[in-house]
Design goal:
Elements: H1 4-33, H2 37-63, H3 83-110, H4 114-144, H5 148-160
Helix pairs in contact: 1-2, 1-3, 2-5, 3-4
The structure holds hydroxy diiron-OXO moiety.
Length: about 180
């Protein structure tokens, strides 16, 4: 049985994952309309992945005697100047998600809720992998700068990246 404060924190995490999913959907749409087809495909997939993270929390809360709540969705940022800004925004979002996962770990430890602590470990590992992945994309963008050919090649590379398969804790392959 979940303690009320743990249930509340898990519901907050649902909202955090939902926000990430909608932010990435918004970013995918920006990429789609700016000719970055590969980045768009990558971000559409990543948006789906965040929704899966959210659903995982729904099932855990409801299976543990709590009540998972569908969160209020605010419109995410949709205007960007460059692909670099887009991926910096994604990376900053992932860092925020990591912070909230870490707060959950702290709370579960304090409350001696070892079952939820065990469940949350999946998110701890996932966040590490995602931070590695997005930092590697930013590194590439910084190397490329404004070079059109380089950005085109990066876009082709992003098309081949599947977040579920390329977050194995290793840096994404070189372009
Ligand atoms: Fe990358 O955010 Fe979910 O956990």
């Amino acid at each position: 049985m979940l303690k009320k404060n743990v249930e509340k924190a898990l519901n907050q995490q649902i909202a955090t994952e939902a926000h990430a999913s909608f932010l990435y959907l918004s970013i995918a749409s920006w990429c789609d309309t700016k000719g970055f087809e590969g980045a768009a495909a990558f971000m559409y997939r990543h948006s789906d992945e965040e929704r899966m993270h959210m659903l995982k929390l729904f099932h855990y809360i409801n299976n543990s005697g709590g009540y998972a709540l569908a969160p209020k969705i605010e419109q995410p940022k949709y205007e960007y100047k460059s692909l670099a800004e887009v991926f910096r925004t994604v990376y900053a979002s992932e860092l925020k998600v990591t912070d909230s996962v870490n707060e959950l770990v702290e709370l579960c430890t304090k409350e001696r809720d070892f079952s939820t602590l065990n469940f949350i470990q999946w998110y701890v590992a996932e966040q590490h992998e995602e931070e590695v992945l997005f930092r590697s994309v930013i590194d590439k963008i910084e190397l490329i700068g404004d070079d059109g050919k380089g950005l085109f090649m990066l876009d082709q590379y992003l098309k081949t990246l599947n977040p579920e398969k390329n977050t194995g804790g290793e840096k994404a392959e070189e372009v």
